[in-house]
From TrEMBL:
Spans through the membrane: 69-92
Keyword Transmembrane: yes
Keyword annotations of the record: Membrane, Transmembrane, Transmembrane helix
Source organism of the structure: Ulvibacter litoralis
Official protein name in the record: Riboflavin synthase subunit beta
C-alpha cells in the first residue's frame, strides 16, 4: 500500500538552451522591480540601521518635487469633492 512508503516527486534537471551562466546571473530569479534603487533592501542591518536608511530615502531631494506635486493634486481633489457635496468652503477663506 502507499500509507507508509510515500512516493517521491520527480526531479528534472532543466538547463535552458541559450542560457549563458557567465552573464549577470539566473534569468529566472525573481526580484522586485525597484530593489536596485532602494537602500533598505539588501543586507540585514539592525532596526536602527533600517530606520536610518528609510529616513535617508525620505529626505532624498529628487523625490521632494514629486511629493509636492502629489500633495497639490490630493488637496485639489479634496477641494473639488467638497465643492461637489456643497460643503461650506468659506471656512477656508480669511475674513
Amino acid at each position: 500500500m502507499g500509507v507508509l512508503n510515500r512516493r517521491k516527486n520527480k526531479k528534472f534537471d532543466y538547463t535552458p538552451r541559450y542560457f549563458d551562466d557567465k552573464g549577470e546571473g539566473n534569468p529566472f530569479q525573481i526580484e522586485h522591480k525597484f530593489d536596485k534603487f532602494r537602500k533598505t533592501v539588501g543586507e540585514n542591518t539592525s532596526l536602527k540601521g533600517k530606520f536610518i536608511n528609510v529616513w535617508d530615502d525620505i529626505q532624498d531631494k529628487s523625490n521632494r518635487n514629486s511629493n509636492r506635486i502629489i500633495l497639490l493634486i490630493v488637496t485639489l481633489f479634496i477641494f473639488i469633492f467638497l465643492f461637489i457635496i456643497d460643503f461650506d468652503l468659506s471656512i477656508f477663506s480669511l475674513k
